[in-house]
Write a structure and sequence with these properties.
This protein is an alpha+beta fold and 340 residues long. It folds into two domains: 14-133, no CATH class; 206-339, 2-Layer Sandwich (60s Ribosomal Protein L30, Chain: A). The chain has six helices and five strands, in the order αααββαβαβαβ. A five-stranded mixed β-sheet has the order 1-2-5-3-4. α1 packs parallel to α3 (81-205) and α3 (81-205) packs across α4.
């Protein structure tokens, strides 16, 4: 009996290959879907990356075409297992490359998301700054309007003040003219009586070296009235003041009451400083001498309201230099008939 010859068993790889390729296709489709969804959420800010995505899509399409081609050729490759295994390894290598591309795409996606987040944050900061600037500008505009209103009010007030000032200036000018006219008239009246007073005193006091006329003043040497460093009137000085008092009283009867006049008595010293128990300076000495003369004239009946005493010390010299003659000339008592 002839035994059966057993054929060697042949392992069919095709179903497993199909399953692997199906799972691979599912994985590819899953990553493709993930890529599309990621691309959708990136939005318009990822437009610049469309070229990379389109390239990846092209690679995926190429891989799909290659997988489709592998399906068509799988029947012819049934007995050519070694070639199929080589193609399988090649496909695995391509999948590995595709996985790397997907990982790279994921990394790029994160980078783009971070960039989008940073730009969004910058935009929010700029928007906040813009809002604050708008609020500040609004405040400045309000302040500017208030200042403009105040300036307008000030201009109106200034205009009114200028008009008022013009009116007042006109009134002041008119008053000035009237005052100058009155002063001129008054000065003219006083000048007349001053001339009369000077003429009378010249006759009474005669021509003496120690009495002279300087402009509108009668000038007496101090030695006529006082000893050196003293403010006590000497007898010969009192005699001269008696004559002057009589002339002043006679003159006061002639001058109308409307004319305001006074007889000013000025005391002057030389420039040699004085400092003793009674007088601390030439100011004190010159003042006391003028007061002594005024006091004596009052005793002789001259109205006190028509007399003025003033001390000038050594600060109004009429002769320059430090010679004895210059100092003697500067030691003087002056009488001046003037306005009050």
């Amino acid at each position: 009996m002839t035994g059966r010859i057993r054929k060697p068993a042949v392992y069919n790889f095709w179903p497993s290959f199909v399953d692997v390729m199906s799972n691979l296709l599912i994985v590819v489709l899953f990553f493709l879907l993930l890529f599309v969804v990621s691309h959708y959420f990136l939005g318009r800010n990822l437009d610049t990356k469309n070229t990379e995505i389109e390239l990846l899509n092209a690679q995926l399409n190429t891989l799909s075409n290659e997988l489709s081609s592998e399906r068509k050729n799988s029947a012819a490759l049934g007995e050519q297992l070694s070639a199929a295994q080589a193609d399988y390894k090649d496909s695995l290598a391509k999948i590995a490359l595709l996985t790397q591309d997907v990982n790279a795409l994921e990394q790029r996606k994160k980078e783009l998301e971070n960039e989008v987040s940073a730009r969004k944050s910058a935009f929010e900061d700029e928007r906040k700054i813009s809002d604050a600037a708008k609020a500040h500008i609004a405040v400045l505009n309000a302040k500017t309007k208030n200042l403009t209103d105040e300036i307008a009010k000030l201009n109106a007030a200034l205009g009114a003040a200028e008009e008022k000032a013009k009116t007042q200036n006109a009134q002041i000018a008119d008053l000035g003219k009237r005052l100058n006219k009155a002063l001129a008239q008054k000065a003219s009246e006083l000048s007349y009586y001053r001339s009369d007073f000077f003429g009378t005193l010249r006759k009474v006091l005669e021509n003496r070296d120690d009495i002279r006329v300087e402009g509108d003043r009668f000038v007496f040497q101090s030695e006529l009235f006082f000893k050196s460093g003293s403010a006590e009137l000497e007898e010969r000085g009192k005699k001269q003041l008696d004559l002057m008092a009589a002339s002043i009283k006679e003159l006061s009867k002639k001058i109308p009451a409307k004319v305001s006049w006074v007889l000013r008595v000025d005391g002057h010293t030389d420039n040699i400083p004085i400092h003793n128990d009674k007088y601390a300076s030439n100011w004190h000495l010159s003042s006391d001498r003028a007061i002594a003369v005024v006091g004596y004239l009052i005793k002789k009946g001259v109205p006190a309201n028509r007399l003025v005493a003033a001390g000038f010390g050594s600060h109004q010299p009429i002769a320059k230099g430090n010679t004895p003659a210059a100092r003697k000339k500067n030691r003087r008592i002056e009488f001046k008939l003037t306005e009050r």
